[in-house]
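To the team - tryptophanyl-5'AMP complex, inputs and output below.
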Amino acid sequence: MLGDKKVLFSGMQATGNLTLGNYLGALKNWVTLSDEYECFYSVVDMHSITIRQDPAVLRKRARTLLTLYIAAGLDPEKNCIYYQSHVSGHAELAWILNCFTYMGELNRMTQFKDKSVNAGLFTYPVLMAADILLYQADVVPVGIDQMQHLELTRDIAQRFNGIYGDVFTVPEAYIGKVGAKIMSLQDPAKKMSKSDENPNGSIYLMDDPDTIMRKFKRAVTDSEGQILYRDEQPGIKNLINIYCACTGKAPDEVVREFDGRGYAEFKPAVGEAVVSVLKPLQDRVEELSKDKAYIDSVIKNNAEKAQYFANKTLRKVQKKVGFPERIR
Ligand code: TYM
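Output:
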Protein backbone atom coordinates (compact mmCIF):
# COMPACT_ATOMS: atom_id res chain seq x y z
CA MET A 1 0.00 0.00 0.00
CA LEU A 2 1.11 3.54 -0.68
CA GLY A 3 -1.16 5.94 1.18
CA ASP A 4 -4.64 4.46 0.77
CA LYS A 5 -3.94 2.90 -2.62
CA LYS A 6 -2.56 -0.48 -3.60
CA VAL A 7 0.56 -0.49 -5.76
CA LEU A 8 0.76 -1.54 -9.39
CA PHE A 9 3.95 -2.24 -11.32
CA SER A 10 4.45 -3.13 -14.96
CA GLY A 11 6.99 -2.66 -17.70
CA MET A 12 7.71 -3.14 -21.36
CA GLN A 13 10.88 -3.65 -23.31
CA ALA A 14 12.00 -1.06 -25.80
CA THR A 15 13.26 -3.79 -28.12
CA GLY A 16 11.96 -4.12 -31.69
CA ASN A 17 8.71 -2.68 -32.95
CA LEU A 18 5.91 -2.84 -30.43
CA THR A 19 2.88 -4.79 -31.58
CA LEU A 20 -0.86 -4.64 -31.13
CA GLY A 21 -0.33 -7.53 -28.68
CA ASN A 22 1.72 -5.28 -26.40
CA TYR A 23 -0.99 -2.64 -26.58
CA LEU A 24 -4.08 -4.83 -26.09
CA GLY A 25 -2.43 -7.27 -23.68
CA ALA A 26 -0.79 -4.68 -21.46
CA LEU A 27 -0.77 -0.95 -22.12
CA LYS A 28 -4.52 -0.64 -22.62
CA ASN A 29 -5.18 -2.29 -19.23
CA TRP A 30 -2.58 -0.09 -17.59
CA VAL A 31 -4.63 2.95 -18.54
CA THR A 32 -7.85 1.40 -17.22
CA LEU A 33 -6.24 0.53 -13.89
CA SER A 34 -4.27 3.73 -13.42
CA ASP A 35 -6.87 5.59 -11.31
CA GLU A 36 -7.39 2.74 -8.91
CA TYR A 37 -3.73 2.10 -8.04
CA GLU A 38 -0.51 3.91 -7.24
CA CYS A 39 1.27 3.01 -10.49
CA PHE A 40 4.85 2.49 -11.59
CA TYR A 41 5.33 1.97 -15.33
CA SER A 42 8.87 1.30 -16.38
CA VAL A 43 10.62 1.25 -19.73
CA VAL A 44 12.73 -1.81 -18.96
CA ASP A 45 15.86 -0.96 -20.90
CA MET A 46 18.05 -3.18 -18.71
CA HIS A 47 16.06 -6.20 -19.89
CA SER A 48 16.56 -5.09 -23.49
CA ILE A 49 20.32 -5.58 -23.49
CA THR A 50 19.98 -9.33 -22.86
CA ILE A 51 19.85 -9.29 -26.67
CA ARG A 52 22.54 -7.25 -28.46
CA GLN A 53 21.28 -3.73 -29.27
CA ASP A 54 22.48 -0.83 -31.36
CA PRO A 55 22.98 1.82 -28.62
CA ALA A 56 21.56 4.75 -30.62
CA VAL A 57 18.52 2.73 -31.69
CA LEU A 58 17.86 1.49 -28.15
CA ARG A 59 18.03 5.05 -26.78
CA LYS A 60 15.61 6.29 -29.42
CA ARG A 61 13.18 3.39 -28.95
CA ALA A 62 13.24 3.79 -25.19
CA ARG A 63 12.23 7.44 -25.53
CA THR A 64 9.48 6.62 -28.02
CA LEU A 65 8.16 3.95 -25.66
CA LEU A 66 8.10 6.34 -22.72
CA THR A 67 6.26 8.86 -24.91
CA LEU A 68 3.84 6.13 -25.95
CA TYR A 69 2.95 5.44 -22.32
CA ILE A 70 1.90 9.07 -21.97
CA ALA A 71 0.18 9.13 -25.37
CA ALA A 72 -1.88 6.09 -24.39
CA GLY A 73 -3.36 8.10 -21.53
CA LEU A 74 -1.07 7.58 -18.54
CA ASP A 75 -0.73 10.92 -16.81
CA PRO A 76 2.93 11.26 -15.71
CA GLU A 77 1.87 13.47 -12.82
CA LYS A 78 -0.14 10.61 -11.34
CA ASN A 79 1.77 7.59 -12.67
CA CYS A 80 5.47 7.08 -12.21
CA ILE A 81 6.76 6.61 -15.77
CA TYR A 82 10.51 6.08 -15.86
CA TYR A 83 13.52 4.24 -17.29
CA GLN A 84 14.57 1.16 -15.33
CA SER A 85 18.26 2.03 -15.85
CA HIS A 86 17.76 5.36 -14.03
CA VAL A 87 16.97 3.59 -10.75
CA SER A 88 20.00 1.70 -9.50
CA GLY A 89 17.92 -0.29 -7.02
CA HIS A 90 16.70 -2.65 -9.76
CA ALA A 91 20.19 -4.06 -10.32
CA GLU A 92 21.02 -4.05 -6.62
CA LEU A 93 17.92 -5.96 -5.59
CA ALA A 94 18.29 -8.32 -8.57
CA TRP A 95 21.72 -9.30 -7.26
CA ILE A 96 20.36 -10.09 -3.82
CA LEU A 97 17.43 -12.05 -5.28
CA ASN A 98 19.82 -14.01 -7.53
CA CYS A 99 21.14 -15.46 -4.30
CA PHE A 100 17.63 -16.68 -3.45
CA THR A 101 16.84 -18.24 -6.84
CA TYR A 102 17.78 -21.74 -8.00
CA MET A 103 19.42 -22.55 -11.32
CA GLY A 104 16.74 -25.21 -11.79
CA GLU A 105 13.98 -22.62 -11.56
CA LEU A 106 15.59 -20.48 -14.25
CA ASN A 107 16.28 -23.52 -16.45
CA ARG A 108 12.55 -24.16 -16.54
CA MET A 109 11.68 -20.74 -18.00
CA THR A 110 10.34 -21.20 -21.53
CA GLN A 111 11.70 -17.88 -22.72
CA PHE A 112 15.21 -18.95 -21.82
CA LYS A 113 14.84 -22.37 -23.45
CA ASP A 114 14.16 -20.72 -26.80
CA LYS A 115 17.42 -18.85 -27.20
CA SER A 116 21.18 -19.23 -26.99
CA VAL A 117 22.05 -17.49 -23.84
CA ASN A 118 24.22 -14.96 -22.04
CA ALA A 119 24.09 -14.84 -18.24
CA GLY A 120 21.83 -11.78 -18.36
CA LEU A 121 19.20 -13.61 -20.36
CA PHE A 122 19.43 -16.54 -17.96
CA THR A 123 18.83 -14.37 -14.89
CA TYR A 124 16.40 -12.03 -16.68
CA PRO A 125 13.39 -13.32 -14.68
CA VAL A 126 15.16 -12.37 -11.44
CA LEU A 127 15.58 -8.80 -12.65
CA MET A 128 11.88 -8.83 -13.43
CA ALA A 129 11.15 -10.07 -9.91
CA ALA A 130 13.32 -7.26 -8.54
CA ASP A 131 11.39 -4.69 -10.62
CA ILE A 132 8.12 -5.80 -9.10
CA LEU A 133 9.19 -6.45 -5.51
CA LEU A 134 11.16 -3.21 -5.26
CA TYR A 135 7.90 -1.23 -5.32
CA GLN A 136 5.97 -3.69 -3.12
CA ALA A 137 3.53 -4.11 -5.99
CA ASP A 138 0.18 -5.73 -5.24
CA VAL A 139 -0.80 -6.14 -8.86
CA VAL A 140 1.06 -6.60 -12.16
CA PRO A 141 -0.94 -6.24 -15.37
CA VAL A 142 0.67 -8.37 -18.11
CA GLY A 143 -0.19 -10.62 -21.04
CA ILE A 144 -0.39 -14.38 -20.54
CA ASP A 145 3.16 -14.92 -21.83
CA GLN A 146 4.53 -13.28 -18.66
CA MET A 147 2.63 -15.51 -16.21
CA GLN A 148 5.53 -17.90 -15.70
CA HIS A 149 7.79 -15.01 -14.70
CA LEU A 150 5.17 -13.77 -12.30
CA GLU A 151 4.86 -17.17 -10.66
CA LEU A 152 8.63 -17.18 -10.14
CA THR A 153 8.42 -13.69 -8.65
CA ARG A 154 5.85 -14.92 -6.15
CA ASP A 155 8.00 -17.95 -5.28
CA ILE A 156 11.06 -15.79 -4.67
CA ALA A 157 9.06 -13.31 -2.56
CA GLN A 158 7.54 -16.09 -0.46
CA ARG A 159 10.91 -17.78 -0.01
CA PHE A 160 12.50 -14.53 1.12
CA ASN A 161 9.60 -13.70 3.45
CA GLY A 162 9.81 -17.22 4.86
CA ILE A 163 13.38 -16.57 5.97
CA TYR A 164 13.26 -12.90 6.99
CA GLY A 165 9.63 -12.12 7.84
CA ASP A 166 7.20 -10.03 5.80
CA VAL A 167 9.59 -8.00 3.66
CA PHE A 168 7.91 -8.22 0.26
CA THR A 169 4.30 -7.88 -0.84
CA VAL A 170 3.49 -11.04 -2.81
CA PRO A 171 2.08 -9.72 -6.11
CA GLU A 172 -0.88 -10.94 -8.17
CA ALA A 173 -0.99 -10.93 -11.97
CA TYR A 174 -3.75 -8.99 -13.65
CA ILE A 175 -4.74 -10.56 -16.97
CA GLY A 176 -7.32 -8.78 -19.13
CA LYS A 177 -10.49 -10.63 -20.21
CA VAL A 178 -9.84 -10.21 -23.93
CA GLY A 179 -6.50 -9.38 -25.52
CA ALA A 180 -4.31 -11.24 -23.02
CA LYS A 181 -2.90 -13.36 -25.82
CA ILE A 182 -3.10 -11.85 -29.27
CA MET A 183 -2.01 -14.35 -31.90
CA SER A 184 -0.15 -13.89 -35.18
CA LEU A 185 -2.38 -12.93 -38.12
CA GLN A 186 -0.45 -15.39 -40.28
CA ASP A 187 -0.35 -18.30 -37.84
CA PRO A 188 -3.04 -18.23 -35.14
CA ALA A 189 -1.19 -20.95 -33.21
CA LYS A 190 1.67 -18.52 -32.53
CA LYS A 191 1.74 -15.44 -30.31
CA MET A 192 1.91 -12.08 -32.12
CA SER A 193 5.49 -11.09 -31.47
CA LYS A 194 7.82 -8.25 -32.34
CA SER A 195 10.54 -10.79 -33.16
CA ASP A 196 8.43 -12.59 -35.84
CA GLU A 197 10.32 -12.57 -39.19
CA ASN A 198 7.04 -12.32 -41.12
CA PRO A 199 5.87 -8.68 -40.74
CA ASN A 200 2.39 -9.63 -42.01
CA GLY A 201 1.76 -11.65 -38.86
CA SER A 202 2.01 -8.60 -36.60
CA ILE A 203 0.34 -5.22 -36.46
CA TYR A 204 2.99 -2.77 -35.33
CA LEU A 205 1.77 0.15 -33.27
CA MET A 206 3.26 2.57 -35.78
CA ASP A 207 1.79 0.86 -38.91
CA ASP A 208 -0.14 3.30 -41.09
CA PRO A 209 -3.88 2.70 -41.71
CA ASP A 210 -3.36 1.22 -45.22
CA THR A 211 -0.83 -1.30 -43.91
CA ILE A 212 -3.15 -2.25 -41.06
CA MET A 213 -6.08 -2.79 -43.42
CA ARG A 214 -3.94 -4.83 -45.81
CA LYS A 215 -2.63 -7.08 -43.03
CA PHE A 216 -6.15 -7.78 -41.73
CA LYS A 217 -7.47 -8.54 -45.23
CA ARG A 218 -4.66 -11.10 -45.58
CA ALA A 219 -5.16 -12.62 -42.12
CA VAL A 220 -5.19 -16.43 -42.12
CA THR A 221 -8.59 -17.84 -41.15
CA ASP A 222 -10.27 -21.15 -42.14
CA SER A 223 -12.76 -22.59 -44.60
CA GLU A 224 -15.72 -22.79 -42.21
CA GLY A 225 -17.12 -19.50 -43.44
CA GLN A 226 -18.93 -18.73 -40.16
CA ILE A 227 -17.99 -16.13 -37.58
CA LEU A 228 -18.09 -18.12 -34.35
CA TYR A 229 -16.07 -17.74 -31.17
CA ARG A 230 -14.59 -21.21 -30.67
CA ASP A 231 -11.23 -22.97 -30.43
CA GLU A 232 -11.81 -24.88 -33.68
CA GLN A 233 -11.51 -21.54 -35.53
CA PRO A 234 -8.40 -20.01 -33.96
CA GLY A 235 -7.90 -17.37 -36.68
CA ILE A 236 -11.45 -16.06 -36.36
CA LYS A 237 -11.31 -16.31 -32.57
CA ASN A 238 -8.20 -14.14 -32.59
CA LEU A 239 -9.88 -11.57 -34.85
CA ILE A 240 -12.92 -11.51 -32.54
CA ASN A 241 -10.64 -10.97 -29.54
CA ILE A 242 -8.92 -8.07 -31.30
CA TYR A 243 -12.26 -6.58 -32.33
CA CYS A 244 -13.60 -6.90 -28.78
CA ALA A 245 -10.50 -5.39 -27.21
CA CYS A 246 -10.72 -2.41 -29.57
CA THR A 247 -14.47 -1.79 -29.34
CA GLY A 248 -15.27 -2.87 -25.79
CA LYS A 249 -17.85 -5.37 -27.11
CA ALA A 250 -18.19 -8.93 -25.78
CA PRO A 251 -17.50 -11.94 -28.06
CA ASP A 252 -21.15 -13.10 -28.16
CA GLU A 253 -22.27 -9.60 -29.21
CA VAL A 254 -19.80 -9.71 -32.09
CA VAL A 255 -20.96 -13.16 -33.15
CA ARG A 256 -24.53 -11.81 -33.29
CA GLU A 257 -23.45 -8.63 -35.09
CA PHE A 258 -21.79 -10.64 -37.88
CA ASP A 259 -24.29 -13.47 -38.04
CA GLY A 260 -24.76 -14.53 -41.68
CA ARG A 261 -21.97 -12.25 -42.90
CA GLY A 262 -18.72 -13.50 -44.43
CA TYR A 263 -15.03 -13.11 -43.63
CA ALA A 264 -14.70 -10.58 -46.44
CA GLU A 265 -16.85 -8.23 -44.39
CA PHE A 266 -15.50 -9.12 -40.98
CA LYS A 267 -11.77 -8.76 -41.67
CA PRO A 268 -11.96 -5.11 -42.82
CA ALA A 269 -14.26 -4.32 -39.89
CA VAL A 270 -11.58 -5.57 -37.50
CA GLY A 271 -8.97 -3.54 -39.42
CA GLU A 272 -11.09 -0.41 -39.06
CA ALA A 273 -11.59 -0.97 -35.34
CA VAL A 274 -7.82 -1.25 -34.92
CA VAL A 275 -7.13 1.86 -37.03
CA SER A 276 -9.60 3.83 -34.94
CA VAL A 277 -7.58 2.95 -31.84
CA LEU A 278 -4.05 3.23 -33.24
CA LYS A 279 -4.32 6.32 -35.44
CA PRO A 280 -5.11 8.75 -32.57
CA LEU A 281 -2.39 7.09 -30.51
CA GLN A 282 0.18 7.60 -33.29
CA ASP A 283 -0.84 11.23 -33.74
CA ARG A 284 -0.48 11.86 -30.02
CA VAL A 285 2.99 10.25 -29.90
CA GLU A 286 4.08 12.51 -32.75
CA GLU A 287 2.68 15.61 -31.09
CA LEU A 288 4.18 14.81 -27.67
CA SER A 289 7.59 13.95 -29.15
CA LYS A 290 7.93 17.53 -30.33
CA ASP A 291 7.85 18.78 -26.75
CA LYS A 292 11.34 17.75 -25.77
CA ALA A 293 11.46 19.82 -22.58
CA TYR A 294 8.25 18.28 -21.31
CA ILE A 295 9.39 14.70 -21.92
CA ASP A 296 12.75 15.51 -20.32
CA SER A 297 11.02 16.83 -17.22
CA VAL A 298 8.89 13.67 -16.97
CA ILE A 299 12.04 11.54 -17.21
CA LYS A 300 13.85 13.49 -14.52
CA ASN A 301 11.03 13.90 -12.01
CA ASN A 302 9.73 10.38 -12.23
CA ALA A 303 13.19 8.80 -11.95
CA GLU A 304 13.62 10.65 -8.66
CA LYS A 305 10.22 9.51 -7.43
CA ALA A 306 10.89 5.88 -8.39
CA GLN A 307 14.34 5.99 -6.81
CA TYR A 308 12.82 7.19 -3.55
CA PHE A 309 10.37 4.28 -3.27
CA ALA A 310 12.89 1.75 -4.57
CA ASN A 311 15.41 2.77 -1.93
CA LYS A 312 12.91 2.28 0.88
CA THR A 313 12.54 -1.41 0.00
CA LEU A 314 16.21 -1.85 -0.85
CA ARG A 315 17.44 -0.50 2.50
CA LYS A 316 15.07 -2.83 4.33
CA VAL A 317 16.27 -5.84 2.32
CA GLN A 318 19.94 -4.93 2.74
CA LYS A 319 19.46 -4.79 6.49
CA LYS A 320 17.63 -8.12 6.57
CA VAL A 321 20.37 -9.98 4.68
CA GLY A 322 23.05 -8.54 6.97
CA PHE A 323 24.72 -5.71 5.07
CA PRO A 324 26.34 -3.20 7.47
CA GLU A 325 24.38 -0.05 8.32
CA ARG A 326 25.30 3.14 6.51
CA ILE A 327 27.05 5.76 8.69
CA ARG A 328 25.50 9.21 8.19
P1 TYM B 1 7.43 -7.46 -23.30
O1 TYM B 1 8.16 -6.19 -23.50
O2 TYM B 1 7.79 -8.63 -24.17
O3 TYM B 1 5.87 -7.23 -23.47
C1 TYM B 1 5.22 -6.15 -22.81
C2 TYM B 1 3.81 -6.55 -22.43
O4 TYM B 1 3.05 -6.94 -23.57
C3 TYM B 1 2.46 -8.21 -23.36
N1 TYM B 1 2.38 -8.92 -24.65
C4 TYM B 1 1.25 -9.46 -25.15
N2 TYM B 1 -0.01 -9.50 -24.68
C5 TYM B 1 -0.94 -10.11 -25.44
N3 TYM B 1 -0.68 -10.67 -26.63
C6 TYM B 1 0.56 -10.66 -27.16
N4 TYM B 1 0.79 -11.21 -28.35
C7 TYM B 1 1.60 -10.03 -26.39
N5 TYM B 1 2.93 -9.82 -26.61
C8 TYM B 1 3.38 -9.15 -25.52
C9 TYM B 1 3.39 -8.92 -22.38
O5 TYM B 1 2.74 -9.96 -21.70
C10 TYM B 1 3.80 -7.78 -21.48
O6 TYM B 1 2.82 -7.57 -20.48
N6 TYM B 1 9.70 -9.24 -19.21
C11 TYM B 1 8.66 -8.34 -19.70
C12 TYM B 1 8.89 -6.90 -19.30
C13 TYM B 1 9.05 -6.69 -17.85
C14 TYM B 1 8.01 -6.65 -16.88
C15 TYM B 1 8.67 -6.41 -15.64
C16 TYM B 1 6.62 -6.79 -16.96
C17 TYM B 1 10.23 -6.51 -17.18
N7 TYM B 1 10.00 -6.32 -15.86
C18 TYM B 1 7.91 -6.32 -14.43
C19 TYM B 1 5.89 -6.69 -15.77
C20 TYM B 1 6.55 -6.46 -14.55
C21 TYM B 1 8.64 -8.38 -21.22
O7 TYM B 1 9.61 -8.72 -21.85
O8 TYM B 1 7.50 -7.90 -21.78
